[in-house]
UniProtKB/TrEMBL annotation:
Binds 1 zinc ion per subunit. Pfam families: dCMP_cyt_deam_1 (PF00383). Its cofactor is Zn(2+). It comes from Thermoflavifilum thermophilum. PROSITE patterns: CYT_DCMP_DEAMINASES_1, CYT_DCMP_DEAMINASES_2. Homodimer. Catalyzes the deamination of adenosine to inosine at the wobble position 34 of tRNA(Arg2). One of its GO terms (molecular function) is zinc ion binding. This is tRNA-specific adenosine deaminase. Belongs to the cytidine and deoxycytidylate deaminase family. ADAT2 subfamily. The gene is tadA. Gene3D superfamilies: Cytidine Deaminase, domain 2. SUPFAM superfamilies: Cytidine deaminase-like. It catalyses: adenosine(34) in tRNA + H2O + H(+) = inosine(34) in tRNA + NH4(+). CDD domains: nucleoside_deaminase.
């Protein structure tokens, strides 16, 4: 399997998590955390369920991953997330020293890029890629917010 095929496979898993959030009335964002081709954590937004503004998919996936591997650092891991991380999640990803972040679509209102000046907001060794399966993520988000406006 090529690296693109693997990336698409794991992003599809993140999209499954986003659909769970959608079905639960949460903003449809999902994340999976992968090490050595294995998913070690998965999560979706649970802000409403937990009444916790920090219960973003990325934060929940990071916490689960730390517990799963018994470490606070994830330099060998890749996070696949359906929406560009916000500043809070970017900060947590920075401190985790995550190796790679792959997101589906940009967040024009709250994504890290809006606040990024001339510095890379992640750990210096973290690589970032955006745009993978963006259409599917955009469709979920647009449908979710369109239903809320009715």
């Amino acid at each position: 399997m090529s690296s693109l095929e693997a990336d698409q496979r794991f992003m599809r898993e993140a999209l499954k998590e986003a659909r769970k959030a959608y079905e639960a009335g949460e903003v449809p964002v999902g994340a999976v955390l992968v090490i050595d081709g294995q998913i070690i954590a998965r999560a979706h937004n649970q802000v409403e369920l937990l009444n916790d503004s920090t219960a973003h998919a990325e934060m929940l996936a990071l916490t689960a991953a730390f517990h799963a591997i018994g470490s606070k650092y994830l330099p060998q891991a890749t996070l696949y997330v359906t929406l560009e991380p916000c500043l809070m999640c970017t900060g947590a990803l920075y401190w985790s020293q995550i190796g790679r972040v792959v997101y589906a679509t940009t967040d024009e209102k709250n994504g890290f890029r809006i606040h990024q000046q001339r510095t890379h907001p992640f750990h210096p060794k973290t690589t970032v890629q955006g745009g993978l399966l963006a259409e599917e993520s955009i469709r979920l988000l647009k449908n979710f917010f369109a239903e809320r406006r009715l």
